[in-house]
Design goal:
The chain is mostly beta strands. Helix content is about 5%, strand content about 55%. The strands form six sheets. The chain has a 23-stranded antiparallel β-sheet that branches. Strands 1-6-7-4-5 form a five-stranded mixed β-sheet. The protein has a three-stranded antiparallel β-sheet with strand order 13-36-35, with no helix packed on it. The longest helix has 6 residues.
Length: about 700
């Protein structure tokens, strides 16, 4: 639903803007492929990676998936609404700010789950009780295996099956601040070669701010079949959501009498969005020999979104009288994505040393239709129809050159085909006659070839020290909403157009991993150079290709098992994202903190009967959205602490959580005025909140 939506232009009016360790004469022991999990298991050779387990999710005081991911080093989270499920939250890997969602590729069970619209992926649609683990692979090498969009990295969400959640039923209820209520149900069962798991949750929340009420329901089911030499699966997911959009609040009363001084207020009391999503995937694996698997899978995903935005400028003072809300924009979008992804995963010998090859073909087709009205019930002003088809071949081979030295190398070649049309009706457009250029985008039909490449090494220097490095080239295609917003007919120099260039990146990375007894540590440095980065300029209501940009950083993550019952963890990251050419040369890219960090402790106070988890998240100041010139105030640095106490007794479990323990008043997303120095719109987040949970398993 993502109503950062390409209503971005409209919202701007209101301020919204394998580890190979075998000997040389034995097969390489990379993580095994599975049709219900990642293509590479636990990461790409030479890349920095993190795995978040189901146990860590269960213990975490974070209430939603974006905040759980935000506890991983180098990941910055921006909250827009501040809702309990993470709706609209942006998860940023390696410094892309407002465009993080388009530069971090999300996988569900090893398959792309990124939609063609601006939202990309809604983290709130995956029930937390359904997640077996989350695999985070940093950097752009994942493009080789999974396709475009993995510029900052890949996040693979692996859901539970009956094999990982044995025959059981589990129910739980949650209640918390601001009218939050949630129910969760999990069921799993196995019978012979068959197994079935179902995960469901439903959420109601009045929200921290006015007009941020949320209703949501999600269900994910996995049916699996496994016999000698054959395995198959069917996954079905359904979700529905209705969300109020409270928008941002100005810091000064230049337009509205309401400001950030009243953080629970809204200046858009009637804006809303809704989403319905259906996802079906199925696949089969045929094992021809030990370590040689052919996997054929495919799927269909359909998503329907509606959103309505109003103009509240008709009276000198803002009121909550519905008659003061003039319809401004109603959006009705439907999207269907179909895919077929056969691949071969094979262990083999090459020049007398063990290898593992993963190679396959990816075929994706998306049909996007979006009608833009003044209000429901009227004729559409614009009817946008976009189709995108991609066909790719890829291969990634990992060679165990020595028992302690692995090299991976691979590439992808992809054919991209895009067609787009805009049907415009001037007779129902209230702005007809006021445009500086033709508001109807001309038909667009383009084809191009793109490629990605990767080389990486892992060298286990000692039993406790591993050195790793990689280099890669990757690309990202513009999404449909970016193409729709590629021009501004009110600006004579920016006529409406679907034409945006493909974004490309080159990056290099190197680091060390240390595992010494109870101590684990990983540190890496990287540099990424980008051309034609796709960026939205709120002041112009237009998407553009930027002059060259650069990211560089240093990420450090450590954990220490202090005693059998106490584990410490922490991390710190330096991220620099800058313009390296054009009028903003040397300036910071908005919404990227140079410094961020996390820390925490897990304490088994009394076996499993009483456990505690305390987590801190820290971030430095960052430039506001729309402040490419770096002249506006910065979003302040801040920190929050969350704490959770829980336990199990027999079949019963419970927990009590306090989030933002010290009641910090903050916002981590804001948009700066394009014309008034010192004026901006921020998105205030909740102070201290409480959450109680209780349940039972059978």
């Amino acid at each position: 639903m993502g109503m950062k939506l390409r209503a971005a232009g409209v919202l701007a009016l209101t301020g919204l803007f394998g580890q190979a360790a075998a000997a040389q004469d034995t097969p390489i022991t990379l993580p095994q492929i599975n049709v219900t999990s990642s293509r590479v298991g636990e990461g790409i050779t030479g890349a920095s990676s993190t795995v978040i387990t189901a146990e860590q999710i269960e213990r975490s005081p974070a209430q939603n998936l974006p905040d759980i991911l935000g506890q991983a080093t180098g990941i910055q989270v921006m909250h827009v609404i501040g809702g309990p499920t993470g709706t609209q939250d942006m998860v940023d890997l390696r410094g892309f700010g407002a465009f993080a969602q388009s530069n971090v590729l999300i996988l569900l069970n090893g398959r792309r789950f990124q939609d063609l619209d601006l939202q990309g992926f809604d983290f709130s649609t995956i029930p937390l009780n359904s997640i077996e683990r989350v695999e985070i692979t940093r950097g752009n090498s994942g493009t080789v295996l999974y396709g475009d969009g993995a510029i900052g990295g890949v996040i693979n969400i692996v859901t539970k099956t009956a094999a990982t959640a044995p025959e059981t039923a589990r129910v739980e209820a949650l209640a918390g601040s601001y009218g939050y209520e949630e129910g969760r149900v999990s069921l799993s069962r196995s019978s012979g070669p068959w197994s079935l798991s179902v995960f469901n949750n439903g959420v109601l929340s009045s929200g921290y701010r006015q007009n941020s009420k949320l209703t949501q329901g999600n269900i994910i089911s996995n049916l699996n079949y496994n016999v000698d030499g054959w395995a198959g699966y069917v996954n079905v997911g359904v979700d529905g959501q209705h969300q109020g959009f409270p928008a941002g609040l100005p810091n000064l009363p230049l337009v509205y009498p309401i400001t950030l001084a009243e953080p629970r207020a809204t200046v858009t009391p009637f804006d809303w969005g809704s989403k319905k999503d259906f996802n079906f995937t199925a696949g089969v694996t045929r094992t021809f020999a030990p370590g040689v698997d052919l996997i054929v899978d495919g799927g269909v995903r359909r998503k329907f979104q509606r959103a309505e935005f109003f103009n509240y400028f008709n009276t000198p003072t803002f009121t909550f009288d519905p008659s003061s809300a003039i319809p401004a924009n109603y959006i009705n979008t439907g999207m269907t994505t179909s895919s077929l992804t056969p691949r071969l995963n094979a262990a083999h010998q090459l020049f007398g040393v063990p290898n593992r090859l993963l190679t396959g073909v990816d075929l994706y087709n998306t049909q996007y239709g979006s009608d833009r009205y003044l209000a429901p019930g009227l004729l559409p002003i614009h009817e946008y129809n976009i189709s995108q088809a991609t066909a790719a071949y890829y291969a990634m081979n990992t060679t165990s050159v020595l028992p302690n030295f692995d090299v991976s190398y691979g590439g992808r070649i992809q054919r991209n085909m895009i067609k787009a049309e805009d049907i415009y009706d001037a007779g129902v457009d209230p702005n007809a006659g006021f445009y500086a250029s033709n508001p109807q985008a001309p038909p667009f039909n383009a084809k191009e070839w793109q490629y990605a490449a990767h080389v990486g090494v892992d060298y286990r220097a000692t039993d406790w020290l591993t050195l790793f490095a990689r280099g890669a080239r990757a690309f990202r295609l513009p999404n449909a909403d970016e193409r729709v917003g590629a021009g501004n007919p009110f600006n004579v120099n920016l006529p409406a157009s679907f034409d945006l260039k493909t974004q490309t990146s080159h990056d290099v990375e190197g680091g060390v991993r240390v595992h010494q007894g109870r101590f684990d540590f990983e540190s890496s440095v990287y540099r990424m150079d980008l051309k034609n980065e796709i960026h939205f300029i709120p002041a112009l209501f237009v998407d553009v290709n930027l002059d060259p940009t650069r990211r560089k950083g240093w990420e450090n993550n450590a954990s220490y098992q202090l005693t059998d019952d106490v584990k410490l963890r922490g991390g710190v990251a330096y991220t620099r994202a800058v313009f390296v050419a054009g009028p903003f040369t040397g300036n910071d890219i908005p919404l990227v903190s140079r410094w961020s960090g996390n820390g925490g402790v897990v304490w088994n106070i009394w076996q499993k009967f009483l456990v505690a988890d305390v987590t801190a998240r820290i971030w430095g100041e960052r430039r506001m959205d729309n402040d490419q010139a770096n002249i506006q105030p910065q979003i302040p640095a801040n920190a929050t602490v969350d704490a959770k106490l829980g336990g199990e007794y027999g079949h019963f479990f419970w927990s009590a959580t306090v989030q933002n323990l010290f009641d910090v008043k903050y916002f981590d997303y804001a948009i700066a005025s394009a014309t008034t120095l010192g004026y901006y719109t921020g998105y205030p987040q909740p102070g201290r909140t409480y959450l109680l949970r209780a349940g039972a398993s059978f």
